[in-house]
Amino acid sequence: MAKRKVANPLAFAVLGSLGERPMHPYEISTMLKTRGKDLSIKLNYGSLYSVVAALEKNGFIEAVETVRDGNRPEKTVYAITAAGRDEFADWLAELLGSPEREFSQLEAGLAYLPAFSPDRVVELLDQRIEALAAEVEKLETTHAEMASHKFPRIFWVESEFRLALVKAEITYTRQLVRAIRTDELEGSAFWRKGFEAVEKYGIQPADLFKDPVKYFGEELPWLQEIPPEAK
Amino acid sequence: MAKRKVANPLAFAVLGSLGERPMHPYEISTMLKTRGKDLSIKLNYGSLYSVVAALEKNGFIEAVETVRDGNRPEKTVYAITAAGRDEFADWLAELLGSPEREFSQLEAGLAYLPAFSPDRVVELLDQRIEALAAEVEKLETTHAEMASHKFPRIFWVESEFRLALVKAEITYTRQLVRAIRTDELEGSAFWRKGFEAVEKYGIQPADLFKDPVKYFGEELPWLQEIPPEAK
DNA sequence: GAACTAATACTCGATTTCGAGTAATCGAGA
DNA sequence: TCTCGATTACTCGAAATCGAGTATTAGTTC
């Protein structure tokens, strides 16, 4: 899968929109908003115009007319080309068929959990759960509304998917909080002790492992087993 | 939450790494790799060096020495500053406590489902499910391995979380495929008809709604109810 | 009809991001 | 001891990203 010439997902939305009819960039942006697509695809004006320029440069779209309305800036209306339709189809197939590794911010945070005390982590994760729950509620309200208007699900599957992901995040986070609270998370006893040593007695994190028994006691046998830079 | 002066998650990892001990950039990169943090935080050499420079410019880290090994390029060793520790703590709190809206590529794809035929979509989603299942298996193997080495969960929660997300994606996608296959997804009958009209008879998508009864028949009452640019 | 607010329609350039490329050295095998 | 691939350690510039700012007009309210 050679790298896409214009890779911003907004470009994909532009191609999708122009697939319906020719439009000028700002019109595309309002259309995406009225259809709520801006909730699934990040819309930014700066990107919109540069992406349109890049699409034109690569022959995926072409200017079909420029209209001027009084003293307003002149609007360039673009249409999709045959190459553009191919690119869109290829792109959509890739988006649907080939998952691409994406990094969520929470993963980055979880990777550094031991930098905070277990109690602080629990506090923060609880806060996150609350915020996520609020989002779930908002999504569910919207969905109920659309369903009651008989607006077909096919037009909002992306929002359903989003809801599924947020719910999964809540479920995982709840479970993690519980595991930390009850100390059933393997390593959390160690975590508490190590954190205290660093925080209260000013030991450098890197020195903790030089004399594990001193800082952690002997109840943590795996500490002696694992190599310092274990997988 | 004012915008972060250096926003790349890699910068967060750099601060986290230098929190343990002073290092030079390449050393940070290998450490992230041996610990598997590069699986949760995107590591790219170009970004690494520019991010280190930006962190230094903003006083979050400082060069403590430069060593030269024979004819090799000279290595600059950096240490975290007090301001850097604050920034790291603040950042971690934000990552854990305040979910930020992230856009997954699949959402973009789902937003344009009707551009393909239902059959093609099912085919592609099945392909995606297979790829995701392979990832689940890999993750579970790794987890079993780490568990058998008694490597504490606290050091790989981020991978657990990743696994939870992938599983949720599979579950949702499976359900969606089923709904499309059985035509129980509201709108999918409409979808089939609209797609045929566009594909087989060359009607412009934008014209479909001008005479809905003609293209869709009368069994789809909601088509007459909803405004053309419905929410 | 004056004064605002909202909507329209972009522009700009400073920063970020990226990944391919480079160049030296190390180590293992033939 | 020679070779060759892996590892170390970065550099560079093209391209993308962003969001605040600008200028005009339409609509609304008093």
Automatic annotation (TrEMBL), chains A, B:
Keywords: Coiled coil. Residues 122-149 form a coiled coil. InterPro entries: Metal_resp_DNA-bind_regulator, Tscrpt_reg_PadR_N, WH-like_DNA-bd_sf, WH_DNA-bd_sf. Residues 14-89 form the Transcription regulator PadR N-terminal domain. It comes from the Bacteria. This is PadR family transcriptional regulator. The lineage of its organism: Bacteria, Bacillati, Actinomycetota, Actinomycetes, Propionibacteriales.
